[in-house]
Design brief:
The complex is a heterodimer of chains A (288) and B (47).
Chain A (H helix, E strand, L loop, with lengths): L1 H25 L5 H4 L28 H9 L8 H14 L2 H5 L2 H10 L15 H16 L10 H6 L1 H14 L1 H4 L4 H19 L3 H5 L2 H9 L5 E5 L9 H5 L20 H5 L5 E5 L7
Antiparallel strand pairs in A: 1-2
Chain B lengths: L1 H24 L2 H9 L4 H4 L3
Classes of the chains: A mainly alpha (288), B mainly alpha (47).
């Protein structure tokens, strides 16, 4: 029992260090938060692998979902090969390990989940909502809803994204009084979604990842073929259920090691009493 | 089976790299950059 707890603690600490480092790298311009200025340097040419609003004053990289819609909105392009290729490449290598180790909004959600409250599991059908949001708000609406100049708008960012409201909206509105005068109905919708997301994250671990994240939806689909995966030696499994019970994404890694919900956090491997579960890259995974 | 999946992964990765190169070649990066260096009114809720 003590060894199992130590394994879990070690795994959690390793993952937290990576998450904090990735958060710091993605949001390296912390000084800008006080002034509300946006970083305008070279690195904004590149997308971050995780969800992080590029309107956050601290952001040093672009948001892949925002960037995808921005290019879609440009009449000259239509579809963003650059961003799509980037997400596909990252997804096929890491799958949803990006959500578990690198995504800044994933870390924020885990911090919210530390707030003491009754904790609940989410019914499985809710996890399909993110695919609907991906198709409607990231693919269809930005491509189809154009103004008279043929320019569309980033529908997911505009109507839904709570990461944008939290990381971009609040710091910018706090430091730009002139923008506060323009607040209206859309901000009310986004603020309501942000409050719902925060409450959801407090009660249910990674509520946004499970229900709303379009980037997680794409990475989830690529989980089935990604180089980074979960390996289970099924013949040695004693079916104790410890892995399923500890999983923050409500996945049973023994029956669904390639689940689209699995963020490869490795908690299942850390608590497995028989050491039959391992997380790693194909041909290079070692049991804990 | 594992060999087939490995081939599939490599094909997808190669395809993704081709997409990135195609995107860079047709100048998409500047669209991303311009959007990212200005306050995105949609993102912050001013639409």
């Amino acid at each position: 029992m003590r060894i199992k707890e130590n394994n879990l603690l070690r795994k959690n600490i390793q993952r937290k260090i990576l998450q904090v480092a990735a958060f710091g790298f993605t949001n390296s311009h912390v000084g800008n938060i006080a002034t509300g200025k946006i970083y305008k340097g070279y690195w904004k040419n590149f997308c971050s692998p995780g969800l992080n609003c590029y309107s956050c004053p601290a952001a040093g990289l672009s948001c892949p979902i925002g960037a995808m819609q921005a290019v879609e909105n440009t009449p000259r392009f239509g579809v963003s090969f650059y961003v799509l290729g980037f997400i596909l490449a990252i997804g096929v290598i890491f799958g949803r390990a990006i959500c578990g180790y690198v995504c800044p909004f994933g870390l924020i959600q885990e911090i919210f989940h530390k707030i003491p409250s009754p904790k609940k599991h989410l019914p499985k059908p809710f996890t399909y909502i993110k695919y609907l949001l991906l198709i409607v708000f990231v693919v269809l609406l930005p491509a189809l809803l154009n103004d008279s100049y043929g320019i569309g708008s980033p529908a997911f960012c505009k109507y839904i994204c709570p990461a944008g409201t939290l990381e971009g909206g609040l710091p910018i509105l706090f430091t730009h009084p002139e923008l506060r005068k323009k607040l209206g109905g859309i901000f009310s919708i986004k603020a309501a979604i942000l409050i719902l997301t925060i409450v959801g994250c407090i009660i249910c671990c990674r509520f946004f990842c499970k229900v709303m994240c379009p980037l997680g939806a794409i990475y989830g689909l690529l989980n089935k073929i990604s180089f980074c995966r979960i390996h289970v030696e099924k013949e040695r499994c004693v079916s104790c259920g410890a892995c399923h019970a500890i999983c923050p994404m409500d996945v049973n890694p023994v029956s669904q090691p390639e689940s689209a919900e699995c963020i490869r956090c490795g908690k299942c491997a850390a608590v497995c009493p028989e050491h039959v579960i391992s997380v790693g890259f194909t041909g290079n995974s070692s049991p804990n | 089976m594992e060999k087939k999946i490995n081939c599939f992964r490599i094909v997808i990765l190669a395809f993704a790299i081709c997409l990135i190169i195609a995107g860079i070649t047709r100048g998409e990066v500047s669209s991303v950059f311009v959007k990212a260096i200005n306050i995105c009114l949609e993102c912050i809720g001013l639409g």
